[in-house]
Amino acid sequence: MQNAQAGRVLGLIAGVFGGIVVLAALRGGFDFAKHETDMLHLVDLVLRLEGGAKLHEDVMTPLGLWGLLPFVVLKEAGLGLGAALKWGQILVAGLLLLPTVWVAVSRFRTVPLALAFGAVVLFLAAGMVYGGDDVKLSLSMHYNRWAWAVVFLPLALVILPAERENALADGAVIGAAMAALVLIKATYFVAFAPAVVLGLLLRRQGRVIVISAAVGLGLLGLQTLVSGFGFWQAYLADLLAVARSPVRPAPGQGWAQVMLSPAYAAGTLLAVGSVLWLRGRLKDEPAGLILAVLLPGAIYVSYQNFGNDPLWLLLWGLVLFVLAQGQEKRRSLGLMGALALAFVAAPTINIAMSPLRHILQPQAAFEPLMARHPDLRGVSVRFERPLGTYALDAEDRVCTLAGGSVAHMRAMAARLESAGLGGQPTYVAGLFNTLWLYGDFEPLTDGAPWYYGGLPGIENARLFVLPECSFKPEFKALVMEEIAARGIVLEPIYQDDLLAAFRVQLPK
């Protein structure tokens, strides 16, 4: 790519970023329309960190610190909670802007392809929906989008041959990106590191390997200086606890379904076919082998993510377009690239259109998620009375919370406060533990805002709450089994139609 073309790419990608910024500025705060429990989970983590809690050491979660830090920094800088969440996404897109431009001009051979790559990365970073085909907005699972945006940078650098050589720039981008993956969502690092390392080795990029290792380890070392070695010990403990937990090994379809079910088989077979084409027709080009190693990791990440969107097909399709450039015999490769993009069009369009949809939502439909943070708003009708369901043929009459999670949490907080049980750290049995956001309760030290198994934080709880209804009644049962196994005594102190409350007595 010539300098003039590179300048055009810079201007165009910067224009995309500018458009995202303008759309974000046209509406104050953030309005979401689904996944209230996930939003409460995010808010819980952000407000705990703003209040001085240390991730992993004081709060149990498998999510990495850098997946929350932009929100926390902006909240501490004085922005409202909704504004901090929205502009935190823009901040991430801004941090990725220059690395994205470098990858685009050094690997993507034409201006349209370079622009497409840049737009993909920026919209993944700044989108307001996880993907899927449901147009309602939410920042649920934002860390998955961020990790896709970040990992596309090193993958493109190692898969595609360089149009511009600069070992320092390549190494800096690869090292920083891989370090970021460790501290956003470690699954992505584990899944894609083999392809990145293999790509560097096959392309004989010794200097890039050294530079990327130095940059990556340097950033992780800087995090260690700030947080201490205890941070890493606690982070690893959280990751291992979740990996060993039977509660939530994957939030969607099974591994085989994500790979070969009717919804995903076309993308998988296309990927395998393109690898075979590259290995058969372009034996001297290592891209085929790198893609072959990348594919299992890509499918595994999709399996791990809610919704199971195969967003890896975005990069796959663009890569095939680049490799097909300028060769008549490679037209079939370009066709496969077009098909790859078509297979992932629905979630891609949903993400790309989300900043525009945010400003078009009717403001009258929203109300604050929490009175203390009026610029973070959800759909009013979804905050109304909680809805519970019972199986008609069940003897135990277990209640499943079917909707109204915000109203449910508000009501439980109000009942407990009216009974004089506020002002103390509380363990709530069930899927999520965000009672402190709605009443005079202390956040539970060492607790988990989202349940992954075990009894995290129970030793710091003075009050134990057993809701009548839960999104996951089986989680309540697991908690009670753990309580019995550890010899913890629960002294009943309050009960009504909504919940039962107990005083926690730990075994001596």
From TrEMBL:
Sorted UniProt keywords: Membrane, Transmembrane, Transmembrane helix
Keyword Membrane: yes
Superkingdom assignment: Bacteria
Spans through the membrane: 6-26, 84-105, 111-131, 174-201, 208-235, 255-278, 287-304, 310-326, 333-353
The protein's name in its UniProt record: 4-amino-4-deoxy-L-arabinose transferase
Organism from which the protein derives: Lentibacter algarum
